[in-house]
């Protein structure tokens, strides 16, 4: 499942909520978050730690910050694997050239691409049922980015791990994900099969995102940015959060929050979804 949207749309907050990683000041007003049938909101601390340890994996945007700066890489993997685990084999399967040397290094001695591969090795060491990848390649150059994504999806396929991938890279998400959820102002405004959502978007925001992607634009064609700015999320909006930026908005959009409606294979939050498809 790929989750896409502009910065500030709520992607990282959703990803953190899946693992119960939001700060203690966070408030769950309504709804539920369930992982493997267990409610994250109500789970005691000990059981939540066990769930993270045995069934969840996380790969974050900044790999160096996600590693312990005081421990060698091999020692960090041993903590995850427990007795009898072989850190070198896990470093080898994320395609690090010299696992024995890498195991002796500290995080600050790694390049960005190496550090992200180590983070992936740690996240996938116990073959979790679900991997949350929050912009795992945002800080990497284009060549390394593709190699790291290949590692993530190859390991996940071998282990039977589902992936929730939070990203700005629409073309990459379309190539690698079966389904896509488009977030705006803290809500999923469109969800469905990847090819349908990006090929035939039913929400004006999804269509605007697709038009602004350089990879999908012919040479010499001027890009069409999404007009305006994302809202500052200070509270529940009265109507549709995208209404101030939407050229298709009507009066109803500013006063009434749109409910989910089915348009072909997509679930869409738009009062005019049927008119725009």
From TrEMBL:
InterPro entries named among the record's database cross-references: AAA+_ATPase, ABC_Ni/Peptide_Import, ABC_transporter-like_ATP-bd, ABC_transporter-like_CS, Oligopep_ABC_C, P-loop_NTPase
Location(s), subcellular: Cell membrane
Any GO BP annotation: peptide transport
GO cellular component: plasma membrane
Keywords from the UniProt entry: ATP-binding, Cell membrane, Membrane, Nucleotide-binding, Transport
Keyword hit for Ligase: no
Membrane topology of this protein: Peripheral membrane protein
Main location as per UniProt: membrane
Residue span(s) of domain ABC transporter: 1-210
GO molecular function (one): ATP hydrolysis activity
Organism superkingdom: Bacteria
Entry's family note: Belongs to the ABC transporter superfamily.
Protein name from the UniProt record: ABC transporter domain-containing protein
Organism, as annotated: Phytohabitans rumicis
